[in-house]
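BUG: 3D viewer hangs when loading the predicted structure for this chain

Environment: internal workstation, default settings.
Expected: structure renders.
Actual: progress bar stalls at 90%.

Input used:
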Amino acid sequence: MPTHYLPWVVLIAYVLLLLILDFFVLHKKGTVPTSKKALYETLFFVVNALIFSGLLFWFFQQGWVDNPNNYTPTKAWISYLTGYIIELSLSVDNLFVIAVIFTSFKVPGKYQHKLLFLGILGALVFRGILISLGIILINKFHQMSIVFGLFLLFTAFKMLKKEAEHEEVHEPKGLSKIFRFTKIIDGGKFITHVEGKKVFTALFGALITIEFTDLLFALDSIPAIFAVTTDPFIVFSSNIFAIMGLRSLYFFLANMLEKFKYLKFSVFAILIFVGLKLISASWVAIPEWFSLTFIVLSLAAGVYVSLLNSKEEKK
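C-alpha cells produced before the viewer hung:
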C-alpha cells in the first residue's frame, strides 16, 4: 500500500472504531444519557480528537500525507485544531435546532441517541461530498474564496435576525408529497401501518429533518474551514471528529441550551472573522495562531456572558 493512503485508512478505521464503541458500548438501548455521563462522553471524544491531532502531526512529519501546500507538521497541527474548534463553534446553532426538531416531532428521549447516531452516518457522506466539491472549486477558481466569504457574511447577519429556538420545525417541504408521514411513534420504528397502509413514523420525519438541517449547516461550516486550510485530509478529519462529539455534547447541553444563548453572538463573530479572512486571503495572510486565538476567545466570551446573565436573572 502506498504510504499516502495510510493516513486515510487510519482515519476511517479510527472513526469506525469510535462509532462502534459509541453505539454498542457507551449507550444501552432505551436509556437516556444523564448530564454527567454525557459530559464524560464529550470529554472522551475531545480527547480522541486531540489524540488524532498527534497522529496527524506524525503523518506530516513522516511525509505520508499529500502536501501540495507544503505545510510543516506544526502548521498542519494548528490548522487541524483551528478547523476542529470552528466546526464545534458553528455547530452550536445546530444543537438548538436539533432540540427544536425533537420537540416538534415529540421524539422521546430514549430514541434521540439513535436518531443522532444515524444522522452522523449521513453527515459523513454528505460532508465528504461537499468538502470535495469545495476544494475542487477553490483550486479551479481562485475567486471562489471571495464567494464563500461573502456567503458567510450573509449567513452571519441572517442568523442574527432569526430566533430558531422559538420556531417550530417540520419535515423539509416537498417530502410530504413523496412520503406518507404520520405523527405516530411506533416503538422506535421508521415505518408503521395506519388503516392498512404503510406510512413513515414521526421518527423518520425527525431523522430526515436532522439530515436536511445538517446539510444546510455544512454549507456554513465547510466554507469557514477553507479560511484556515484547503488540505483535504485536515479539512475532513477535523470536521468529522467535531461532528463525532456533537451527539454527546447535545445531551450534555440539552437542559442548559437557554443558559448559553449568548453563544449565538460568538458564532456571529466567528462567521464574520472567517468570512473576512476568506475575502482578504489574496492580500492579507492572517497567521493560524491568531485565528485559533480569536475563535477560542470568542467562544469563551460567549460562555462567560451567558453564565453571568443567567446569574443576574436568578437574582
